[in-house]
Amino acid sequence: MANISRVAVVTGAASGIGAATAVRLAADGNAVAVLDLPDTGYAETVEAIESAGGRAIGLAVDVTDRDGLAAAMAQVADELGTVSILVNNAGYSHDLPIQDMTFQQWDDMTSVHLDAAFCTSRAVQPGMAAQGFGRIVNISSTSALGTAGRVGYSAAKSGVIGFTKALALELGPIGVTANVVAPGFIVSRMTAKTARRLGRDFDEHQEIAANGIPVGRVGRPEDIANAVSFFAGDAAGYVSGQVLFVAGGPRG
Ligand code: NAD
């Protein structure tokens, strides 16, 4: 384990991509705040980091609760110090034809993916400005390019890209980069849920997906964690406002 150098926050870090990212950023030498809903497995992510010799704290927060999220961000700064790395990952997909989607479901979708990223980015900006260094990495999706039956998710994930590009322009002068990782099919609870909805066994679902992916396999959470680790590190200081599709083939 490298010496602890910076403080990172990862939202939705109880499972899947967020958990792998938190573990990876800790292995890179950062103290990591692991944020997720109550009664999820976020304590297990903290335990995995600590048992590998890293430093982590876990916080139960619903990222759609603006005041709760702002308070959690303040708590991270109190307990671990100024946040240098922010990964907005918490989210979920919802497959629903537009006619069946309610305004509440639409609002929930934009709230979890966009409002939360706005809230956390706003919270970390003064500290990043004061230290002249910051890395913001937002998790979008290949659905940002449009997926049938996912108007809300596609709009929110596309919004994440515009938000990040604007951040890159605005915060570049104070030493902050902002980039997007846009995953394709990744094995996680989210894709397991889609398999269930389609009445497919998860292994069969992965096989079908892999057949349409140029590299011939589905992605793992670690594939995304690797990309986030690059954007979060010193070596990526001249890379900002970019969208990296990690999807086993070209997109975008
Ligand atoms: P996952 O379900 O394993 O992880 C999502 C995490 O976000 C969960 O731990 C969940 O509890 C948390 N979360 C959801 N709503 C929250 C809220 N309101 N407050 C706090 N935490 C909340 O799924 P995953 O695949 O690891 O998804 C991570 C991110 O990657 C999501 O933003 C998702 O849209 C994106 N993504 C996933 C895939 C994929 O194929 N799995 C593809 C593209 C994008």
UniProtKB/TrEMBL annotation:
Residues 6-184 form the Ketoreductase domain. Gene3D superfamilies: NAD(P)-binding Rossmann-like Domain. Pfam families: adh_short_C2 (PF13561). This is 3-oxoacyl-[acyl-carrier protein] reductase. SMART domains: PKS_KR (SM00822). The keyword Oxidoreductase applies. Belongs to the short-chain dehydrogenases/reductases (SDR) family. The keyword Cell wall biogenesis/degradation does not apply. It comes from the Bacteria. It comes from Stackebrandtia albiflava. GO terms for molecular function: oxidoreductase activity. Keywords: Oxidoreductase.
